[in-house]
Amino acid sequence: MKIIQSNLLNQFPNLTQGFTTKDNGNIAFHVNDSKIKVIQNHKLVAIELSYDVARLIHMKQVHKTEVKVVQGSDNFYNSPTCDALITNKKNTPLMVMVADCSPLLFYDSKKEVIAVVHAGRAGAFNDIVKETLKSFRDDFTSAVKDIYVCVGPSIGECCYEVGSEIYDEAKELKLDFAISQKQNSYFLNISKILHKQLLQNGIKKENIEFSSVCTACTTENFFSYRAEGETGRFAGLLMLKETSENIRVIRGAL
User: Fold this and answer.
1) H-helix or E-strand spanning residue 41
2) pTM for this structure?
């Protein structure tokens, strides 16, 4: 298995999009991997998806809710510190890196604006979805009804055991609907939180797609911090193309 595509976003020929897998190697610089090897992995993904790796923008992710509008100084070698990137610039690939957290890809089909979002427990609990959609509206005058969202592979409720303190926090935030109790253990469903937040913030139900893949259950294909400990990162990637030509370079599916 190599790169997989979102079926929802695949209807738009002006998008390059997908999620890498272990077959593409680790693409993160902060996990004690060889920098040379990581750069080579990036170059191979760029060849696969036909973009300029020097124009790729990834994030120094910090499990908060800051949304960064891409600036001219942002590039592969100068990555901003944030957990969401948004732009209307063409041929500017945006990347979110994960190993259990949820990678979200947003697309406004009318204004042609894209965003990538990193949502772990902290991002979901603090509603990074709301902050991202606020940037769409405030910075690009987007209408929420025109926005499509794909959520890639992430850890499922089946494997995401949390302590009672997380349950208490979720309950205080009125998010305990996303926690199930099995015997004396609690299990968190981040996808359930994100889905509710997307709907509450105005995204149409038919414009939302979630991968059913649990990263901790499928370590043969995806990196999982919970299942593997120190490990690499896979990525969600989204780019607006100049051309409307529909280049199908990926064969997989969510």
Assistant:
1) helix 35-49
2) 0.94
